[in-house]
Amino acid sequence: MSASKKEYGAYSFKSAFVGQGKLAIWKVVIIAFIFFGIAGLLSIVIAPIENHVFAEIRSSVLHNLPIGFNWTNYEYLKSFSQPVLILTCIYYFVFNVLLAPITEELFLEDI
Predict the structure, then answer these.
(1) Arithmetic mean of pLDDT over the chain
(2) 22-63, pLDDT tens digit by residue?
(3) Which band of pLDDT confidence, cut at 50, 70 and 90, is reported for residue 87?
(4) Cβ contact 47:53 at 8 Å
(5) How far apart are CA 16 and CA 7, in angstroms?
(6) Average of pLDDT values for 65-69?
């Protein structure tokens, strides 16, 4: 970042990406599928180990939280109507998948 300050007069990552061109969209899609595949495989492999190691901690934490925080309690989730669950998923998608990353990027633009 100090190199960018010297070259461009502001702290940024510009000097780190000199000579980087845009990738073709098909290459971006292939790379994304590869990364999602690796993440999926790691989740499959690591989840049982994580469940075994943190089972006691998780049960004590979930025991002290209200029932609504345990998303693995499917009987509790069945107590809600389908429109409420669908609306909850839509809100989750809008705020956590769309608005949060956009807001983060807007704030990081100033750095």
Answers:
(1) 84
(2) 788 999 999 999 999 999 999 899 988 988 898 888 888 878
(3) very high
(4) no
(5) 11
(6) 79
Please name the residue that has the structure tokens 């909850």: 88
Query: How far is it, in rounded angstroms, from Cα 66 to Cα 63?
Result: 8
- The DSSP letter of residue 19 is T
Amino acid at 16: A
* Dihedral over alpha carbons 39, 43, 44, 46 (to 10 degrees): 130
Neighbours of 62 (CB within 10 A): 14
Give the pair of three-digit tokens for residue 110: 């100033």
What is the separation of C-alpha 56 from the centre of its chain, rounded to a whole number of angstroms? 25
Cα-Cα-Cα-Cα dihedral of 54, 56, 57, 63, to 10°? 130
Question: Helices in 21-99 by DSSP H: which ranges?
Answer: 25-64, 74-77, 82-92
